[in-house]
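Hey, I'm writing a tutorial for new members on how sequence and structure tokens pair up, and I'd like a real worked example in the thread rather than a made-up one. If someone can provide the structure for the chain below, I'll link this post from the tutorial.
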Amino acid sequence: MISELELYIHIPFCVKKCSYCDFLSFPAEAKIQEAYIRQLINEIRAYAPFGRDRIVRSVFLGGGTPSLLEPGLITQIMSAVRHSFCVSKDAEITIECNPGSTLRHKFSVYREAGINRLSIGLQSAENTELRMLGRIHTYEEFLKCYQGARMEGFDNINVDLINCIPMQTMKTWKKTLRQVVMLRPEHLSVYNLIVEEGTPYYEMQEKGLLMLPDEDEQAEIDGFTREFLAKNGYKRYEISNYAREGRECIHNIGYWTEVPYLGFGLGAASYYEGVRWSDTRDIGEYLEADFGAADTLDKIRKDKHSLDEKEQMEEFMFLGLRMVNGISETDFLRKFGKTLQNTYGSVIEKYLENGLIQKDGYRYRLSEHGMDISNSILNDFLLE
């Protein structure tokens, strides 16, 4: 039986770190980028046996800023993928783009390489907010990037947005949403800002210098977002993601529904046959790895861990409940041979009573308000 597989390819390079970013990314000169891509291709080839009897349904090139690379390097990566894995003819293949580093000529190369979906990091339509975030682009450059992608024939585009950021008001957020929706992208990813340790924003917050919307303002922003996008044809299908009919992101749905995936590149995470691991985060170790040696893949894998039944049940709950459709009692019983009520009955009943979880037949899902405060709810599904 042929099973599905997803691939994630990490490009860690960027022009400069944004003030809120804690991703594994950094500036690097061209020769380092080229050496990294050579190793990335070697790693992809080394993992070819893992794709036996599996069909790749999605590929995602993320970062960092993949669009920072010379487009020919993207072609080389995709060629290695197709030679090493069986990629479905209708596979979703996405590349993340920064409007400040994506010139129109790159889009034609991406299309020739088989890329059929773009994820463009706008974050805000207000240039003052973009400067505050440390972005390298303006809204006008985003428009040029977006229009260039459309002119080259891309008909599946996601736009990333961040709300509840410094200097943002309800008025400026409404303006951002309205301007983006006028462009009619197929998909929107809308994130609340999270201040992560180790970022410039974290240091500012520790010093009391970071002025963010309070809880009431955040709730107002979240409520407007849901209502406005719904009125304009964007269906919320996951906590932070909205799409037009049939344009949900296949790759991300795979993460939340436990489709196996392999991650290539610095720090890239994998989940395969019940085991999780990630690649080394040390660029020196990665560049020196001999992917022709039998033990190299084991050497660069870090935090390798086989999930026990308890962990698998926890992931079933807190990944599945991220989705608007929620989770199924029947699926839980089929997978674990245990009833949902016997395992999580008290937690579920608590949230049913206060309206944060809703039941529809054999399915449970977070209510709209439950999705807005999902982190505190999902932590309750960790088993002792």
